[in-house]
Amino acid sequence: MPPGLHRPAADLGAFDAAAEDARLLAPYLWDPVAAGTLARTRPQPGERVLDACCGTGPSALPAARAVGDHGRVDAVDLSRPAASIALREAERSRGVHPQLRVHVADVTSWQPDGYDLVQCVLGVFFLPDPEAGTEHLVRRARPGGRVAVTVWRTGALRTAGQALLDAVADVRGEPAAVPSASGVAERLGHAEALTGWFTERGAVDVVVTEVPHAVRAEPVPLWSLVLGSGFRGLLAGLSPADVDRVRERYLAAITGGAPLDATSLVALGRRRDQPDSDTASTAVTTRAPAGANAAHGARST
User: Fold this and answer.
1) Which residues lie closer than 8 Å to 284 by C-beta, 6 or more apart?
2) C-alpha–C-alpha distance, residues 181 and 130, integer Å
């Protein structure tokens, strides 16, 4: 997993600071990753949806548009700045209000249930206990309801992460402290592992889809990737002048190179129809068409 993109839930500072820049990064990363998830979860008119760890709303807003004014989407995130941006974007977007409700709350203690769809896009790593937190999310769905989690495929954005670590270490004059990635994050970058893990959390009939995506190796998307994601935490404590030096070194290392792999894995299953059901999950991996997100260009809190 790329260092910096999976940080403990208690460490919200980097994500609060990154909220505004996350919207600038959205067309290059967050929006296409969310679109890849919604192509699998397929929110329907009139459905109730829980969008967990919603961030600035890249998956919540299109879900709200899909369910229509007879449906409802509860978008939940601990970051107040990110949630505020999601609400602001909802107010600006046609076909989203009033069915989108944005909540600043801990989704691991969220009590409403009976949702037709529960989805968490690149968020399970933010939960203090990813296993218990994901089990709680699965239980928010109605019996038979759809549940989905999206994670990075192993190797995604690794080039950017390493280039940033090297640049920060060079400017600081000492090795950069690598944010500790969740052990779960390290394990779930492969379809088979994700299928088994999601099954253990209570989902059944799990199918994992690989969604290809790439970020152009150009200065604007590359630096937006740093400022608009958890990578931003690696800049903590640096002066503005030192941040500029990091930027120069980081961009020099990867600008003009191959597009950055940002492939995600979407695990879609459902909650058991009955609590004691022995229905087995289906360990199937599919691959979304490479052009599925072409409308977002050649390009994730």
Assistant:
1) 195, 207, 208
2) 12
CB of 45 closer than 8 Å to CB of 95: no
Tell me the C-alpha distance between 84 and 241, whole Å: 30
Distance CA 8, CA 85 (A): 22
Report the first-to-last Cα separation within the chain, whole angstroms.
Answer: 15
75-116: pLDDT as tens digits: 999 999 999 999 888 888 876 778 999 999 999 999 999 999
Report pLDDT for 187: 83
User: Distance (Å, rounded) from C-alpha 109 to C-alpha 132?
Assistant: 11
User: What letter does residue 178 receive in the DSSP assignment?
Assistant: P
What mean pLDDT is predicted for residues 233-238? Answer: 90
Look at residue 283 in the predicted model and tell me its pLDDT. Answer: 43
Average pLDDT over residues 220-225: 96
Contact 43, 63 (CB under 8 A): yes
pLDDT of 65-74, one tens digit each? 999 999 999 9
Sign of the alpha-carbon torsion through 51, 54, 59, 61: positive
Nearest to 136 by CA among 55, 73, 76: 76
How far apart are alpha carbons 251 and 115 in whole angstroms?
44
Q: How many CB atoms lie within 10 A of CB 182?
A: 18
Q: Write out 195-244 in H/E/C secondary structure.
A: HHHHHHCCEEEEEEEEECCEECCCHHHHHHHHHCCHHHHHHCCCCHHHHH
**Cis peptide bond N-terminal to 98, omega within 30:** yes
| Angle between helical axes of 158-172 and 240-254 (0-180°, round to 10) | 140
Cα Rg of the chain, angstroms: 18
